[in-house]
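Per your request, structure below.
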C-alpha cells in the first residue's frame, strides 16, 4: 500500500510538471493563400508568437500571399519563417 501511495505521488507530480511545461511552449501557426489575409495584429494579440508562411509548392507553384504574410507578420511582432 505504501508503494502504491509513492507511485501515485510520482505520477501526480509528473502530470503537473508536464502541464506546466506545456504552458511555457511558444505557440505558432502556418499560413498560406488558403487562409486569405490574416490580421497579423490580432494574431499576435491572441498569443501566437511565430508563424510559418508557405512560399512555394514544388518548383512551379508560388503562394500569392507569401510577401503579405511575411511583411505584415514581422510588422506585428510575430517571428516568421518559410
Amino acid at each position: 500500500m505504501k508503494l502504491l501511495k509513492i507511485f501515485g505521488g510520482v505520477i501526480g507530480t509528473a502530470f503537473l510538471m508536464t502541464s506546466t511545461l506545456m504552458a511555457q511552449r511558444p505557440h505558432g501557426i502556418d499560413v498560406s493563400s488558403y487562409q486569405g489575409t490574416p490580421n497579423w495584429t490580432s494574431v499576435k494579440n491572441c498569443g501566437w508568437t511565430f508563424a510559418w508562411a508557405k512560399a512555394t509548392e514544388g518548383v512551379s507553384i508560388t503562394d500569392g500571399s507569401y510577401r503579405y504574410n511575411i511583411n505584415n507578420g514581422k510588422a506585428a511582432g510575430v517571428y516568421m519563417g518559410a
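The domain at 2-81 is CATH 3.20.20.80 (TIM Barrel).

Regards,
D.
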